[in-house]
Amino acid sequence: MLCMNNYTQEYIDKCRLRVNTQLSTYKNWVATARKQSKTNEKLLDSAIEAFEPVFFNNMALLLDSLFVHQAGLWN
Predict the structure, then answer these.
(1) Nearest-angstrom CA–CA distance, 45 and 11
(2) pLDDT of 4 above 60
(3) What is the rounded distance in angstroms from the CA atom of residue 68 to the CA atom of residue 34?
(4) For residue 61, is pLDDT > 50?
(5) Could you tell me the CA-to-CA distances from 68 to 33, 37, 58, 65, 72 in Å, in that order?
(6) When comparing pLDDT for 59 and 1, which is higher?
(7) Three-state SS string across 27-68, please?
(8) At a CB cut-off of 8 Å and minimum separation 6, what does 28 contact?
(9) DSSP 5
């Protein structure tokens, strides 16, 4: 079976929603952590800095998996 090289608008919208959901969850997590961390901001900053590369590298992998050589997935 040949791989997909065209994507329906519905598929693109689902992918966009999936990415936006993960990004908004991340932003909400950081905002909540900042509000609740009044004692040790340095420690929180360090934790966020350690987490961000892992999170965003995984987001890049997600985007890659959504649009590279799809063979009927997510349809």
Answers:
(1) 36
(2) yes
(3) 36
(4) yes
(5) 35, 40, 15, 6, 11
(6) 59
(7) HHHHHHHHHHCCCCHHHHHHHHHHHHHHHHHHHHHHHHHHHC
(8) none
(9) -
